[in-house]
Amino acid sequence: MTEAMPAAIAERELCGLVNGLARQIGDHVRERATKLELTAPQATALREMTGPMTMRDLAERMSCEPSNATFVVDKLEKLSLIERRPHPTDRRAKQLVLTPEGVALRKRLIGLLVQDSPLAGLTHQEQSTLHDLLKRAVVPR
Predict the structure, then answer these.
(1) ∠ CA 35-55-79, rounded to 5°
(2) 20 to 30 A Cα–Cα from 34, which one of 44, 72, 113, 127?
(3) Are 54 and 97 in contact (CB under 8 A)?
(4) Which pLDDT does position 138 carry in this prediction?
(5) What are the φ/ψ torsions at residue 140 (nearest 5 degrees)?
(6) How confident is the model at residue 108 (pLDDT cuts 50, 70, 90)?
(7) Are the beta carbons of 81 and 98 closer than 8 angstroms?
(8) Binning pLDDT at 50, 70 and 90, where does residue 3 land?
(9) How many C-beta neighbours within 10 Å does residue 38 have?
(10) pTM for the full predicted model
(11) Mean per-residue pLDDT of the chain
C-alpha cells in the first residue's frame, strides 16, 4: 500500500461527507420552498438576494449559469417578487431588486430555512469553523 492511499481514502470520505451535506441542504431547501409555493431555484435566488445585484452576481451566488438565473428571475418577476431596474453605473446592465412582496417572502423563507437546518446540530463556533474551512477549500483556481 502506498503512502498516497490513506490520503486518497481520506479525500474520498471527505468528498462523500460534503456531497451528503449538500444533498441534505438541497432537500431542506426544496421542502421549505414548497411550503411557500416556490421551486428550489426560486427559493435559492430569494435567499441570495441580500441587496441589489446584477444577474451575473446572482448566478454566481446560485452556482449556476446566468441563463439559468435569468429563467428563475423571469418567474420571480412574474410573481412580482423581483424587479429589473437600470444599473446606476452601467447602462448596459440591469440591477435586480426585491419588491416589497419579495422582501416579505424572503424574510419568511429565511425563517423556514433556519428551522431544522442540516447545520442546526452545529454550534455557532462549529458553523464558523466549517465556514472558514470550506471557504479555504473553495478558492478559485
Answers:
(1) 35
(2) 127
(3) no
(4) 85
(5) -60, 140
(6) very high
(7) yes
(8) low
(9) 23
(10) 0.85
(11) 92
Given this model, what pLDDT does residue 90 score? 87
Helices and strands (DSSP H and E) totals, the chain: 6, 2
Cα→Cα distances 20→11, 12, 17, 33, 58, Å: 14, 12, 5, 20, 25
Confidence at residue 6, expressed as pLDDT on a 0 to 100 scale: 80
84, three cell numbers? 429589473
Q: Compute φ and ψ for 63, nearest 5 degrees.
A: 60, 50
Contact indicator for 113, 28 with CB cutoff of 8 Å: yes
State percent of the chain over pLDDT 90. 77
- What grid cell was written down for 89? 453605473
Task: Kindly report the backbone phi and psi dihedral angles of residue 95, in degrees, each rounded to the nearest multiple of 5, phi listed first.
Answer: -110, 135
HSE-CB at 90 with a 13 A cutoff on CA atoms is 7
Q: Supply 17's cell numbers.
A: 461527507
Helix (H, G, I), strand (E, B) or coil at 54: coil
